[in-house]
Amino acid sequence: MLMTIIKRLNTLGLSALLVGSLAACATPPTEGGAGGAGAGGSRLDTVKQRGTLICGVDGGIPGFSFVDESGNYSGLDVDICKAVAAAVLGDADAVEYRRLDSTERFTALAGGEVDMLSRNTTWTLSRDTSVGLEFAPTTFYDGQGVMVRANSGITTLEDFDGKSICVESGTTTELNITDGMRKAGVDPEVKTFQQADPAYAAYDDELCDGFTSDKSQLLARRTTLSNPDDHIILDITLSKEPLGPATINNDSTWFDVVKWVTFGLFEAEELGITSENVSEMLESEDPTIRRFLGVEGELGSGAGIEDDFMVKVIEAVGNYAEVYARNLGEDSEFNLDRGLNALWTDGGLLYSPPFR
Amino acid sequence: MTTHSDHQIPLWRDERFWKIALQVLAVVIVVGVGWLLIYNLSVNMQRAGLRFGFDFLGNQASFSILDSVAPYDVNRTSYRSFFPYVSTDSYGRVLQAGLINTLVMMISGIILTTIVGTIVGVLQFSDNWLLRKGSELYIEIIRNTPLLLQLFFWYSAVFSQLPRAENRLNLLGILYASKRGLFMIWPTNTPLLWMSLGLLVVGKIGFFLLWKRRTFVIVERGQSGQPQLYGLGILAVVLLLIFCFGLGWRVPEEIEPGTFQQGLRLSLEFSALLAGLVLYTAAFIAEIVRAGIQSVAMGQWEASSALGLHANLTMRLVVFPQALRVIIPPLNSQYQNLAKNSSLGAAIAYAELYNVANTTYNQSGRPIDVMIIIAVAYLSINMLISFGMNTLNRLVQIKER
Fold this sequence. Notes:
The complex is a heterodimer.
Chain A (H helix, E strand, L loop, with lengths): L1 H10 L3 H8 L20 H8 L2 E5 L2 E2 L3 E3 L5 E2 L1 H14 L5 E5 L5 H6 L5 E7 L2 H4 L4 E3 L4 E10 L14 E5 L3 H13 L4 E5 L2 H9 L5 E5 H8 L8 E3 L6 E9 L3 H20 L6 H4 L5 H6 L6 H5 L5 H9 L2 H8 L29
Parallel strand pairs in A: 1-5, 1-6, 9-10, 9-11
Antiparallel strand pairs in A: 2-3, 3-4, 6-13, 7-13, 8-11, 8-12, 8-13
Chain B lengths: L2 H5 L7 H33 L21 E5 L4 E2 L11 H33 L5 H15 L3 H12 L10 E3 L3 E4 L2 E4 L1 E2 L3 H31 L4 H21 L2 E2 L2 E4 L2 E3 L2 E3 L1 H27 L3 H9 L4 H31 L11 H12 L2 H30 L5
Antiparallel strand pairs in B: 1-2, 1-10, 3-4, 4-5, 5-10, 6-7, 8-9
Helix pairs in contact in B: 3-8, 3-11, 4-8, 5-8, 6-7, 8-10, 9-10, 10-12, 11-12
């Protein structure tokens, strides 16, 4: 009798209350997570079941993630979201973007509100460990810079004595600028804003003498200031800022997918596969290419997705070179050099482990 | 079936049983849901490999915060906060600094908003058409727009548009305003200052007692009260002299255009938040004051003027003391609102508790732990306000004898 009541309650969804309180200690930690819609607990199943990927982006940085007037997202970070959606769901448009400010992003990921972050997040030890993130390969090697007004006379960090500098809260830049100023032996005012837009507005209103952030972001944001030509980016690099997508700790099934889709973009460039020639490449005799595109072998199934996942990714966003050119490189308004973000074969840092 | 049980009402029709059972059920549901949430949290934290605890408070914070209310420090020849914090200090210390900033904002906000709110509230009964309509317009505009919007207005449309340092505004030489901040007259921190402050407090109490005494001798003994009046006059002059010269007031000295020494520096972030909070809360307080005054029966006004009291005296001696009984309880919630709303300062870079805690949990990866600290801090602050206001409320209530 009692068992039938429990069963009935179970179907009513009250099981959590009853069974939970009866057999709390026996429940293994992988079950009953807040975002655990799918049984077994991997985000991969959750995403597949939902049919859309929820991707945390910034939304305010041209070139990385930017919303235009009609609500379309574009940028390098956005293309990573699209690539993952294409690989997992076969549809690059099955992405729901969540705009997160720098202080919200980790909580949003930890709380299961977003499946992954693709929000120019710097890979650091403490974020990898105590904050509880897992970092996919770096998609953009950056360094922290300082932007000042050209007529301010500031050329080095030492010139900041008694001046003020604006920074976004919850970022690595916030820590680096403090370290950098300490090293330089000066003590400027650091104004910490919770969101980027008011922070840049304050800089534009001359409430601070400088602004510090990743160099790429300064370049992109400079275009949105009232007089972009009045501002210069100093020839100082305060730190290493490897930016890349991130997922939650201890979910390696899901992390592997994000990691290898990112690697796939590098590998595609190395193999010379572009969005234009991908269908021809399917006929290729080269076993590496055949395996990469899923014509041979079962690489995708091992990761829990389709074998031809890279075909869909490349059809949707192209290889890394195409993604870069479109958003930051020669086809964009920034015309940024590849620099460190070239393939290892071209003297850069991008290097994918073998797809086999 | 025995005859005994025939007489008994069945359990499910017993009203007493249901009264208890429903309450037990409610408690079980509340406890169950709460337990489920906590269980979920611990499972998720365990899965993500996160720990819980407050040991991180001892770690080095290594980020800077803005000194917002900073008197000039002669030894360091710079403006420095009351509660100095440097980036090599711990998370615990930076959270304390944030708490101090919140308290400074809260206390100055509550004092100023009470003054502004009371004045605007009373002005609504003014005979002057312009003052009456003006205060109504102010209340309607301020009350009906969101506070965050107003804060951005004060920050980017007012304080950000101040002139550059070299073209600073000068108000009588005691207040200078520019994009670098507000520089104002301020007492110097010396032992003399504290002695003078002590004398001022003692003098004020003496003044009050003498006033009482004068009223007593006039009313009870029919004396003129002239000697006491002289005493009051002399005391007032002495207090004024102590206030002017004993506190060591220092005006900001301009050493080069836009750069100052001495006095007190207020950051634009502090000023904008203070202006926004004070004017926003004052609009609500004005309405509370109006309600309080209107709650006093018309007969009190009439009786008072029949005794020959002037309108101002009627308000001060007859109506307002009675209105206070109605005003104080809702005033309590406005004070608490102001205290909590000060957390919006995070949006305009004022380094108050929430802003600092935000950075802290991001850099340390301890959102839950830091959230608990924030919650406990605001809870304690608001309990203190409540306690103070409840005490005040008891004092002004009608004493039944």
